[in-house]
Description:
Two copies of one chain form a homodimer.
Chain A: E1 4-10, E2 23-29, E3 37-46, H1 50-55, E4 72-73, E5 75-82, E6 92-94, E7 98-99, E8 103-107, E9 112-113, H2 131-144, E10 151-155, H3 160-171, E11 175-180, H4 183-192, E12 197-200, H5 206-213, E13 218-222, H6 227-234, E14 237-245, H7 264-269, E15 273-276, H8 286-298, E16 306-310, H9 315-323, E17 330-334
Parallel strand pairs in A: 10-11, 10-13, 11-12, 13-14, 14-15, 16-17
Antiparallel strand pairs in A: 1-2, 3-5, 3-8, 3-17, 4-7, 5-6, 6-9
Amino acid sequence: MTEMNKTWILRARPVGEVRESDLELVEAPLAPLNEGEVRARTIYLSLDPTNRIWMSDMDAYLPPVGLGDPMRGGGLGLVTESRFGGLEPGDIVNTGLAHWSLYNTLPGAGLAKMPQLPGVPLTAFMGPIGATGMTAYFGLMDIGKPKEGETVVVSAAAGAVGSMVGQIAKIQGCRVVGIAGSDDKCKWLVETAGFDAAINYKKEDVGAMLDKHCPNGIDINFENVGGEIMDTVIARLNDFSRMPLCGLISTYNATDPVPGPYNFANLLMRRTLVKGFIVIDYYPRFAEGIQQMAQWLMEGKLKFETDVVRGLENAPSSLSRLFEGKNLGKLVVQVSEEPNRS
Amino acid sequence: MTEMNKTWILRARPVGEVRESDLELVEAPLAPLNEGEVRARTIYLSLDPTNRIWMSDMDAYLPPVGLGDPMRGGGLGLVTESRFGGLEPGDIVNTGLAHWSLYNTLPGAGLAKMPQLPGVPLTAFMGPIGATGMTAYFGLMDIGKPKEGETVVVSAAAGAVGSMVGQIAKIQGCRVVGIAGSDDKCKWLVETAGFDAAINYKKEDVGAMLDKHCPNGIDINFENVGGEIMDTVIARLNDFSRMPLCGLISTYNATDPVPGPYNFANLLMRRTLVKGFIVIDYYPRFAEGIQQMAQWLMEGKLKFETDVVRGLENAPSSLSRLFEGKNLGKLVVQVSEEPNRS
């Protein structure tokens, strides 16, 4: 009996929020492997704000997913079959830019096998030592260039990227203020992740709270959100400040043109450096980033959370958790069980 | 008989365009010099877009000029009296951040004496080898980092800064497209300054013309203007493009909040580097910039124009030439005659 695969197909370009009818879960039999290929059963599928970008027909950093094509996505997979010399069943790999599928069939060359690190759960490879951790690490270290004693503000601070940015900045000796959307998140940021302060933008006056918590102004704004919050932070930047531009999640569902920051002129006055980046730009340096983050992780210096939704069938509906700010830490869909690795 | 000085005093914060009633020309007797001071009679007073910023009570890169205080400005002055060892009557100095005055009384220490360069008129010290030239040189070379074969777009291209940016970019082997506000300016840019193309934004569809003249996209946007033109350029930036943020002249007279670029998200998608800068940040490196620009100038590689208005009394009313785009090249007020230096 041929085993069946399940794949989410993009059927329509979402207008505003993604509706379930924009995608369709399709079953199809698995084809036999070709030489050099491996088959990986998805354990964790990564859900990220950028998924929404890929669904839109806009001039983004990657071509959009075509209508009728499998939805692009990746995560961790368990190798179940292999016709590639370097990988065998039971190995766990990062599937990279694959599909929202139960099984992905991939060229074995270039697939990264996940090592087993003492005391580090598999989900860390979706967080601090995965793509979101690398986003935080390179965006902050390479663009932000934090110096001891500086003040760092990060938006979407309790998300997978933001929570790492703040903790890396603390390791660098910075004052760190996070902006997040609930009291629970703010409590986690300060009490668990060690941020100096956190602002609940849904309840507090962000400008007034930034004035309070950043008495020496803001040297680095790690931007994940855009919109009004970004504007409020830009108004408080110091001379020669830096702004790694990582994401603009508040705008991805927009159906009308979104104005840029009203305080754009302050980027001139403050001589701010703004630099857009996408984590894949840093792929050649991932080894460096993963080594450093893994070390901090094993030293207990990085706390992380994983927001787990179960079942591939729940992938599209779960994406909204990111846009509604429901997730604490890395949002993943658990598609199949973790293997016993002990 | 004590000689009289004339100084423009800022009386009111302009709302929108500067009106003559916002300033007052006041006469007062010159005080005797103190030890270490020199007195310089202004030959050329520099008029620059940033003068408008200094008149506003905004959080800019320098404190605003106080109401009742002399208007800030500088240019070239002829030393008429000196109690400073290194300078003597007849020397020509750059007065730096002095006043809109017939005479400025300045500490001699740190005043730069202008050398005599073969075949180079004095007005070059207001242009290519003055502050505007340094703005162009460092903004383009240090932030833009042009590479041979890249495409550079510059707005306010026929202005003092823009015209130098384009010519320096040509020397670096780039394709250069200028955006300016009249057919005469566009003609000068292409026929005299050697730009590859120029777009008259008052008559042409800037987006369509950029598409035509930048078939390989835009690698560097040297931004002087802001507003709709900036947005149109940002939409056409290439991956890993750079945007030296030098000025936003279209917004300086605004009385309402000005939205940032609607294509702000493209800075993320294209991984663009945006860097605000003010030429005074580069003061420690001026010698390097002046040496290079002077060499190119003497080699005949830099063409420049000076837009000369005569009479200190015309300074406030002439500032509008910048905002209406009437000047070709560096706008100066000739306050007194050049000395005979042959």
